Amino acid sequence: MAAAEEVKAILKEAFGDSSSESDGEPSRGIRRRARISDSSDEIARPLSVFGDTHTWEQITEINGLWICREFLSTDQQSSLLSSLERDGYLAEGSLNQAMRFGDLPPWALELSRIARENILFSTGFSESGDRMHSENEEECLFPSELLWREPLFNQLIVNIYQPGEGIGAHVDLMRFEDGIAIVSLESACVMRFSPVEASSDSVELLLSPGSLVLMWGEARYLWKHEINRKPGFQIWQGQEIHQKRRTSITLRRLCPTPQQ
User: If you write DSSP's letter for every residue of 33-94 in order, what string do you get?
Assistant: First the structure.
């Protein structure tokens, strides 16, 4: 119980009280909406210390791709945006992209800690850090060797996208280790995944405000991801998404240098 109260205090301090690189032209080919795993395969932990149940959805077409759509409550999102504004990330006239390496700001450290605790509560790790059931790689939310590394993340990038601005298809640089987390704030958007190897197939995933995406393994190395917010491209379930400013926070870990 003490540990639960400690995590609650961390959440409240960091995000308040919880409530109930360029535009890319999409290649032509087959587009599929992300297929979510059957409800019996979704990972959730009722009555967690995070308040409402946090459900992690597995994107079955791509191994190593998961999303938690309600990772941050509305109040927590507002508090996080306030922290970004206080640190100058959202100031008028500021750059639309900012990076930090090494020592991360307190809000990013707390965000990393919340992500780790959320995964722990959702997947049933023991206090020793071992899974309490056999681990099927294809159904694994986040590998334990990544979850328990220290620090979990030591690099962040904050991107601010105005309406119409997006990012071209890419795989994150190899200077970063496996295991990437992306938090979405403000405007919703559709992220499109396509195989690194030439293919006309693609998978689309709706990123809602407050969601957290995890990419590791095949999702991190074998699939490109992009967001095209030009008029006519942000369509979900037959409806065009009204574009507003979108802010994203990407957390990664640098590969060690030879001296390390």
Answer: EPPBPPGGG-EE-TT-TTSS--EEEEBTTSTTEEEETTSS-HHHHHHHHHHHHHTTTT-TT-
Spatial contact of 242 and 222, defined as CB atoms under 8 Å apart: no
Closest CA to 89 of 247, 254, 253, 251: 247
Tokens standing for residue 23: 């535009």
Q: If we measure between CA atoms, which residue out of 159, 151, 142 comes closest to residue 253?
A: 151
Residue recorded with tokens 């990772």: 71
CA distances from 87 to 106, 108, 117 (A): 11, 12, 25
Helix, strand, coil share of the chain (percent; to 5): 25, 30, 50
Its pTM stands at 0.79
Residue labelled with tokens 């450290």: 109
pLDDT in tens, 51-72: 445 789 999 999 999 999 999 9
Question: In 64-199, which residue ranges form alpha helices assigned H by DSSP?
Answer: 74-86, 106-123, 144-147
For residues 226-255, average pLDDT: 93
Q: Which tokens hold the place of 225? A: 């991801």
Selection from 122, 71, 99 nearest residue 172 by Cα: 99
CA distances (Å), origin 186, targets 35, 113, 116, 214: 24, 22, 23, 19
